[in-house]
Specification:
Helix content: 25-40%
CATH superfamily of the largest domain: Class I glutamine amidotransferase (GATase) domain
Structural class: alpha/beta
CATH architecture of the largest domain: 3-Layer(aba) Sandwich
Shape: globular
Number of strands: 18
Strand content: 15-25%
Number of helices: 14
Distance between the termini: 36 Å
Largest sheet: 9 strands, mixed
Strand order of the largest sheet: 2-1-3-4-9-8-7-5-6
CATH topology of the largest domain: Rossmann fold
Number of domains: 3
CATH class of the largest domain: Alpha Beta
């Protein structure tokens, strides 16, 4: 996958990822790097162009990280957006005077001579922040509103700055990005699911050759697509290890066995380690302690079982691009194993791209649209100690909610839905012991907000839970968004 690309240098925040998703949706490949990445490193990656993005509306162009000034001398087209535009103007000799308006709708007029705005004349936009800027030498205004430079450019050097964002809710956002990526930078539209799969298979062939690879298959979307991709590339040279921790959702183990073992013929070695995990979890109530113990035991079992496979040279991980961006580091955690090479076939794919690859490879919606589950499983969906009784309740309640949502056809609208379990302090005559909280979240920009499930659906789920699980005292609906609280109660 060494074909042409754009680089997005990020000042932080959510804007860069949103831009990356839009560009990839236009079949233009892009990667994200910290804004202070040295120009020499950028040149070595041979991008077609660079976008400066991120930060917050309150950020000052005089403070915080800056791009390497040598970037502007590489001869690459550069587009600064929002805070990136103001920083670029200042670094190139201009001056950012003061904020002229904030959080207002403004009619912008575009200068037809700029290829960045070809086909655009004027439109109303919501402007988060617009500053008065003394433009650097060689720059001119290419979009304005109320006499203020909303966008500026040095066409000769293909340097552009826009004080307004185009990543969300912009009527011409995709068109502007497309003009920059394709018309100005000359990017090829090659980022398609077919090309992603073909390129990944070629890379796997080149690396593995006649060797053998092993991966821990959890049954989640990422590891499942990785397994399918590796199997498509190297067939029976790919081996999967499935560790049943006893903390899985209802039906998880069956789905893995059927989808990968029976249907695809992948070599799956299943390990029943329920007793080992329960023994180590006994008495633990802290979420941090539970997570640490589960992670440690998983690594121990992984090392033990990996030693049973002869001739394995490679370990496979279902890393996706969000994992990489969260750390901006090359994490190579192999569960304490050494002497193996690491393969991460989906390392540069966002979640929606991973799902698309899975569908292209023939995985069923039951796999590609599976709900996320923490690595520590249902242990993180109950407060306090992990017991067989509590696991049985939260597992069944979760299955009931999933059945109702999927039966109503709402699963594709939601980012996450699950059941959580808490012990109750009820002193009523019946003295039931548990409260089940139902949770359904949808994406809203960079945040997750509670989805308003139909009341009749909630009534059916509640009735089934109270009828089938007599130890449950209450069923409640959790409307807490993320932020301020995470999706999972115990994380």
């Amino acid at each position: 996958m060494n074909r042409d690309k754009l680089l997005i240098l990020t000042y932080g925040g959510t804007q860069p990822r949103a831009l990356a998703r839009q560009l990839r949706g236009c079949q233009v490949y892009c990667e994200l790097l910290p804004v202070d990445t040295p120009a020499a490193d950028i040149a070595a990656l041979a991008p077609r162009g660079v976008i400066l993005a991120g930060g917050t509306p309150a950020d000052s162009p005089d403070e915080g990280p800056q791009c390497d000034p040598a970037l502007f001398g590489l001869g690459l087209p550069v587009l600064g957006i929002g805070h990136g535009a103001r920083c670029m103007a200042r670094q190139l000799g201009g001056a950012v005077r003061h904020t002229a308006l904030e959080n207002q709708t403004l009619q912008l007029h575009f200068v037809a001579a700029s290829p960045l705005f070809t086909g655009l004349s004027y439109s109303d936009r919501f402007i988060t922040r617009l500053d008065m800027i003394d433009l650097p030498e060689g720059f001119s205004v290419i979009a304005h509103g109320h006499g203020i430079a909303a966008a500026f450019a040095c066409e000769e050097k293909k340097l552009y700055g826009m004080q307004f964002g185009v990543e969300t809710n912009d009527p011409d956002g995709l068109q502007i990005l497309d003009h920059f990526a394709v018309d100005i930078c000359g990017c090829e539209r090659w980022w398609t699911t077919e090309n992603i799969v073909t390129g990944a298979i070629d890379d796997i062939h080149a690396r593995v050759g006649s060797g053998h690879a092993l991966m821990a298959l959890s049954g989640g979307v990422d590891s499942s697509v990785c397994a399918a991709l590796m199997h498509r590339a190297i067939g029976n040279q790919m081996h999967c290890l499935y560790i049943d921790t006893g903390l899985m959702r209802k039906g998880d183990t069956r789905v893995v066995r059927e989808a990968f073992g029976s249907a695809m013929g992948i070599d799956i070695h299943c390990v029943n380690a329920r007793d080992r995990f329960f023994a180590r979890l006994t008495g633990l109530t802290s979420p941090a302690d539970k997570w640490a113990v589960i992670s440690d035991e998983f690594s121990i079992i992984y090392r033990e079982e990996a030693a049973r496979f002869e001739g394995v040279d490679f370990l496979v991980k279902g890393t996706i691009y969000s994992d990489v961006l969260n750390f901006f580091a090359d994490e190579q955690n192999l569960g304490g194993l050494s002497g193996y090479e690491l393969i991460e076939p989906t390392r540069f794919l966002f979640k929606d791209e991973v799902r698309a690859v899975g569908e292209y490879l023939g995985l069923s919606p039951e796999i590609t649209q599976r709900q996320p589950l923490p690595g520590s499983g249902l242990a993180m969906r109950m407060t306090g100690a992990v017991t067989m009784e509590k696991l049985s309740i939260v597992r069944e309640a979760d299955a009931i909610l999933r059945e109702e949502i999927e039966g109503a056809g709402l699963n594709r609208r939601l980012r996450r839905y699950c059941a959580e379990l808490a012990e109750t302090t009820s002193t009523g005559e019946k003295r039931c012991r548990y409260v089940v909280a139902l949770r359904a979240l949808m994406r809203s920009g960079a945040a997750s907000t509670a989805y308003r499930l139909p009341y009749d659906l909630l009534e059916r789920a509640t009735d089934r839970i109270l009828t089938g699980l007599p130890l449950v005292d209450r069923v409640v609906y959790d409307l807490t968004p993320n932020p301020p609280r995470p999706d999972e109660w115990e994380i």
